[in-house]
Design a protein that fits this description.
The chain is built from 7 helices and 8 strands; from the N terminus they run αβαβαβαβαβαβαββ. Helices cover 31% and strands 16% of the residues. The protein has a single domain, classed as TIM Barrel (Alpha-Beta Barrel).
């Protein structure tokens, strides 16, 4: 099976990953990938915002490390990108990041449902206590919808990250899903199928089959992502992700160059 591009990978500059870009590229070649994208966690407004985003001073170093991987593996198409946290009010900051390098794409992500709480942080599980899950899922999907509407991103990351710890609402979340997916379709934003969920408590690809099926029905394009934080995670569980895409009816994925989309047949 020919594997699609892995468009979501990380490096040690985010302070919670291992393996330099050239090492991740080497593994990509070993497993038969022909394209990979690096998407480090973009700098936040302040370097002390948290301890898992790249520091602003390291941004150019990151780009150079990706360039080195390109030189080391000319047979592999390597894209330069960022995973950018969307918080309302940070739009100008994101535009400043966009001007810093010749990026191939930006992945919009929602981790924070407030300025101080990242809902998927394993060191801050207490944030879920005394909250009905629906009270977390609702603002999460509201921010995800705003990210899709913002015009700042080509791809939306792990679209139901809020399920990471299996805190599931009893309420029907279909209206939340549909509003987000309609925004993605309207603004031409892709949704990634992210296999990292299989490595988390939820043991399920992000997003769930319900969202993938709705995404196909509404015409939302897709990309594939391992969310690798180590070389051996590149392309991990892509067979399962391809099967999920096909079961929903997808026949194409997409790739990005200089922030322009190209649809590619899913082999």
């Amino acid at each position: 099976m020919s594997l699609p591009a892995d468009y979501h990978t990380h490096t040690p500059l985010c302070r919670h990953a291992t393996g330099e870009p050239t090492e991740l590229a080497a593994h990509a070649v070993r497993i038969g990938l022909t394209e990979i994208g690096f998407s480090e966690h973009a700098p936040m407004l302040r370097d002390d915002w948290d301890d898992w985003h790249i520091r602003l001073a390291d941004l150019d170093t990151y780009a150079e490390k990706v360039q080195q991987a390109r030189r080391d593996f000319p047979q592999l198409t390597i894209k330069l990108a960022l995973e950018v946290d969307y918080l309302p009010g940070h739009e100008d900051w994101i535009r400043q990041m966009a001007a810093r390098q010749p990026w191939d794409y930006f992945i919009g992500a929602v981790h924070y449902v407030s300025d101080t709480w990242a809902l998927d942080n394993p060191h801050d599980r207490s944030g879920w206590q005394n909250r009905d899950p629906f009270e977390v899922w609702t603002p999460y999907f509201e921010r995800l919808t705003k990210a899709a509407e913002s015009g700042l991103f080509e791809i939306i990351a792990h679209a139901d990250l809020c399920k990471r710890f299996c805190d599931y609402p009893t309420q029907d979340c279909t209206p939340l899903f549909t509003k987000f997916l309609n925004a993605a379709k309207k603004h031409g934003v892709a949704m990634e199928l992210n296999t990292a969920g299989l490595r988390k408590d939820c043991k399920e690809i992000y997003p769930c089959p319900r969202i993938v099926n709705l995404g196909h029905d509404l015409g939302v394009p897709i990309t594939f992502a391992s969310d690798a934080h180590a070389p051996d995670q590149v392309g991990m569980n892509f067979e399962e992700a391809i099967a999920l895409a096909r079961s929903a009816g997808y026949t194409h994925t997409c790739r990005f160059t200089a922030r322009r989309r190209e649809d590619v047949k899913l082999s």
